[in-house]
């Protein structure tokens, strides 16, 4: 057997031995950081503390849409929770329906005593105008001061009130 | 609910908590490395792939697979690293022993003193199989490690018997640590270390408050009351007796060190460590002054190279030279001259072969693997919810760590040489079997510790009241 092969094997063996040690340490590391911390409802901090569900949908497209993108001029690009336990949460508007309620499959899970489990939804109509519709909630959905009875277009910046939570559409 | 009061944090575990697939991947890795080492050693020794490569690889793989399946079934939340590291060390041990079996020098040496040279690697594979069988047995039969707590005082008696028995058998290689029946012999100290850890944890769990709280403060140290010194004095006396009658420094150091570590962990009092170190120093120096066998060991430690002039045993000198000639990257498997150590080259002195053929890099890797086992044990102790499990996990990992330290230190000339073996790597049935049992108990404790708490039954109060306004 040539000297070279043996040298390569010798160093190769040491390399795989150390690789094992390093992989083992990685396993320990993933054990240490194996918990996921989700903070809910911190009023002091803003966007980074959104609940998991919304995070998935919001982060990258938000920036893309803000710098122009499709849609009419003056169309809202994000939905912002401005009051209530979820204050600071934002969800990018990408043409999908946003459901609000205490049910945990809602887009925005409301932690609010006055909200119903399926409280309201916000969706774009064919022209891209955003519409809010009450889904037969117990305590009602208010746009500004009026209680909704039919699906209503949302003006930019108008507060949508659900229990103690206030939502606005912003550019 | 106002926004100021609700600042809740949800902590959830990411991914599946059991981590059995990680363990499987690591195990595959842990079987491939020794096969690679085997091929390397075979190519270096005889220019061809060794014939037994397939059977050793398959044997190790089979043992690993059995271990993994049993862990999957009986300890699904156990630590994912303990089994792969133990398998890797055992596999590397098999390769190193096989490599020393091929040595012509060792065969010649056995012939010169009128013995038949028999290869140790096949035996070691059988011992490994027995060890894995015991591992499986412990995992299946030991439903809960807290069951061991019931046998606190029985295990004390059993451990004492195991420790005292070798005194009645003839000494082998200068130390009475063997029980030999016919051609079959075991080293009971290896098993006693597990059993005595059970006793110490059961005992200290009950007594730790008395030992920790009833003390006076003096010069920053908590001095225990005189009568609380009782247990440590008894264990100290025991280890001195072992040293005197069995002339084995390793076993004695292991038991006393184990007790001091567990006492410290149980009571959080630094004073026990100070006392322990003082007492062991006094004991060791005292015994070394009048016991010739121990004295001989100390002399060989102080001046290992004197053996070349006086004609004594040159094992330590050869081991030191093996480490030296290995350098940083070693000479390569099968290309060293560590077989010059002669007697016990593949058991007590196997670390010298690692040092010469794998060099500093390989030795550090192996020591880190031992360190990882100990770390996982300590981690298990931290995670365990019951005090007995905590103490037992700490005790077992401390015993493992002390054993590695005592052997490695002895071979490298840091402390006087003792008659203990490197866990998993060294040739020797008792050691391999006992250490597999030790790992099995650690895995069982870690399974209990890491098992997620059962989800509480949903209470009706949790449902929010809906306010209906007209």
Automatic annotation (TrEMBL), chain A:
<dbReference type="InterPro" id="IPR050923">
    <property type="entry name" value="Cell_Proc_Reg/RNA_Proc"/>
</dbReference>
<feature type="compositionally biased region" description="Low complexity">
    <location>
        <begin position="49"/>
        <end position="67"/>
    </location>
</feature>
<feature type="domain" description="FHA">
    <location>
        <begin position="98"/>
        <end position="148"/>
    </location>
</feature>
<keyword id="KW-0597">Phosphoprotein</keyword>
<dbReference type="Pfam" id="PF00498">
    <property type="entry name" value="FHA"/>
</dbReference>
<dbReference type="InterPro" id="IPR008984">
    <property type="entry name" value="SMAD_FHA_dom_sf"/>
</dbReference>
<dbReference type="InterPro" id="IPR000253">
    <property type="entry name" value="FHA_dom"/>
</dbReference>
<feature type="region of interest" description="Disordered">
    <location>
        <begin position="38"/>
        <end position="76"/>
    </location>
</feature>
<protein>
    <submittedName>
        <fullName>PSer/pThr/pTyr-binding forkhead associated (FHA) protein</fullName>
    </submittedName>
</protein>
């Amino acid at each position: 057997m040539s000297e070279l092969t043996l040298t390569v094997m010798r160093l190769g063996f040491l390399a795989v031995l150390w690789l094992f040690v390093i992989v083992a340490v990685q396993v320990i590391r993933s054990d240490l950081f194996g918990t996921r911390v989700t903070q809910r409802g911190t009023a002091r901090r803003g966007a980074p503390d959104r609940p998991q569900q919304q995070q998935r949908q919001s982060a990258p497209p938000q920036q893309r849409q803000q710098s122009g993108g499709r849609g009419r001029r003056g169309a809202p690009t994000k939905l912002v929770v401005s009051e209530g336990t979820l204050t600071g949460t934002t969800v990018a508007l990408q043409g999908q329906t946003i459901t609000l309620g205490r049910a945990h499959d809602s887009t925005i899970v409301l932690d609010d005593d006055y909200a119903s489990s399926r409280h309201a939804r916000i969706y774009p109509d064919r022209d891209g105008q955003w519409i809010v519709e009450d889904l037969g909630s117990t305590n009602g959905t208010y746009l500004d001061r009026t209680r909704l009875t039919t699906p209503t277009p949302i003006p930019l910046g108008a507060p949508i009130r659900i229990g103690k939570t206030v939502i606005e559409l912003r550019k | 609910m106002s926004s100021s009061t609700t600042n809740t944090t949800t902590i959830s575990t990411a991914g599946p908590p059991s981590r059995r697939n990680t363990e499987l991947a690591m195990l595959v890795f842990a079987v491939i490395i020794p096969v690679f080492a085997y091929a390397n050693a075979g190519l270096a020794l005889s220019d061809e792939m060794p014939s037994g490569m397939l059977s050793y690889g398959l044997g190790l793989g089979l043992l690993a697979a059995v271990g993994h399946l049993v862990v999957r079934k009986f300890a699904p939340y156990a630590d994912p690293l303990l089994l792969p590291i133990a398998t890797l060390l055992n596999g590397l041990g098999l390769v190193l022993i096989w490599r020393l079996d091929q040595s012509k020098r060792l065969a010649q040496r056995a012939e010169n003193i009128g013995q038949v040279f028999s290869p140790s690697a096949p035996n070691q594979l059988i011992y490994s199989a027995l060890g894995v069988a015991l591992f499986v047995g412990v995992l299946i039969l030991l439903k809960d490690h807290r069951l061991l707590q019931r046998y606190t005082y029985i295990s004390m008696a059993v451990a004492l018997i195991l420790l005292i028995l070798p005194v009645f058998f003839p000494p082998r290689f200068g130390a009475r640590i063997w029980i030999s029946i016919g051609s079959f012999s075991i080293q009971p100290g290896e098993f006693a270390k597990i059993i005595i850890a059970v006793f110490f944890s059961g005992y200290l769990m009950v007594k730790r408050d008395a030992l920790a709280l009833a003390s006076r403060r003096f010069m920053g140290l908590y001095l225990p009351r005189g009568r609380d010194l009782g247990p440590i004095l008894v264990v100290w006396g025991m280890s001195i007796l072992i040293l005197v009658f069995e002339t084995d420094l390793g076993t004695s150091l292991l038991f006393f060190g184990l007790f001091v570590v567990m006492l410290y962990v149980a009571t959080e009092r630094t004073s026990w460590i100070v006392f322990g170190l003082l007492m062991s120093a006094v004991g060791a120096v005292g015994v070394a002054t009048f016991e010739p066998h121990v004295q001989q060991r100390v002399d060989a430690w102080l001046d290992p190279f004197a053996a070349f002039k006086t004609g004594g045993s040159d094992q330590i000198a050869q081991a030191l030279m093996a480490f030296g000639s290995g350098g940083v990257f070693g000479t390569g498997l099968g290309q060293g001259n560590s077989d010059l150590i002669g007697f016990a080259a593949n058991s007590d002195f196997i670390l010298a072969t690692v040092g010469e053929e794998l060099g500093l890099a390989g030795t550090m890797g192996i020591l880190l693997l031992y360190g990882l086992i100990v770390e996982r044990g300590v981690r298990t102790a931290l995670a365990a919810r019951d005090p007995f499990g905590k103490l037992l996990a700490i005790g077992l990992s401390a015993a493992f760590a002390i054993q590695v330290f005592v052997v490695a230190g002895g071979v490298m000339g840091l402390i006087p040489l003792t008659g203990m073996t490197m866990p998993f790597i060294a040739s020797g049935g008792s050691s391999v079997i006992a250490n597999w049992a030790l790992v099995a108990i650690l895995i069982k404790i870690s399974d209990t510790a890491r098992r997620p708490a059962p989800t509480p039954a949903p209470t009706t109060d949790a449902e929010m009241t809906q306010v209906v306004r007209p």
